[in-house]
Specification:
By secondary structure, the chain is mostly helical. The chain has helices at 10-25, 29-47, 52-67, 71-89, 94-109, 113-131, 136-151, 155-163. The chain has two domains: 1-83, Tetratricopeptide repeat domain (Serine Threonine Protein Phosphatase 5, Tetratricopeptide repeat); 90-164, Serine Threonine Protein Phosphatase 5, Tetratricopeptide repeat. The longest helix is centred in the N-terminal third of the chain and has 19 residues, at 29-47. GO terms for molecular function: kinesin binding.
Length: 164
């Protein structure tokens, strides 16, 4: 007998989260947030609050909040996801490092450049180690750090990242 795919079935929750990602990529942040919250509710209920999939959903929700300039809420969510991912997956896991990058972006948006730089460097070092220097996630973090440097007039440091 086939299993019924209800609204809180893990496959349905993955679909909801994927749709949230699509909306976010289209700039439809409110709709993305709504879907991330729906997926989060189901994942917390089915998997628990510290499951890696639940934590990845929190990371996505944090990104949606950040995209809407709700930085304090985003920061809180990123920290929650980061704490859990470090515990469950380790500090060098690519998912953990992507969350570090997200938190760095919030600090950059708040012009807290020292904290942003520290986090970008952490994410970049780990991503180079785990995924290699040419992986898209590594390159995206390197670009974010270079952009941070350029916004501070640190063009030489930004250029070094481009040539590495």
């Amino acid at each position: 007998m086939k299993e019924k795919l209800g609204p809180k079935h893990p496959n349905m929750l993955e679909t909801v989260q994927n749709l949230a990602r699509v909306y976010r990529s289209q700039g439809r942040y409110g709709k993305a947030e709504q879907l991330y919250r729906q997926a989060l509710e189901g994942r917390e209920e089915k998997l628990g609050p510290r499951h890696p999939d639940t934590l990845r959903t929190i990371d996505g929700l944090a990104g949606a909040c950040s995209s809407q300039h709700r930085y304090e809420e985003a920061k809180k969510l990123y920290r929650q996801a980061l704490e859990g991912l470090e515990e469950k997956l380790g500090s060098k896991h690519p998912d953990t490092l992507r969350t570090v990058d997200g938190l760095a972006s919030v600090y950059r948006s708040q012009r807290r450049y020292g904290e942003a730089e520290k986090l970008y460097r952490r994410a970049l070092g780990g991503l180079v180690e785990k995924l290699g220097p040419k992986h898209p996630d590594t390159l995206e973090t390197a670009n974010s750090l270079a952009s941070l440097y350029r916004s501070q007039g640190r063009h030489g440091e930004a250029e070094k990242l481009r040539s590495s």
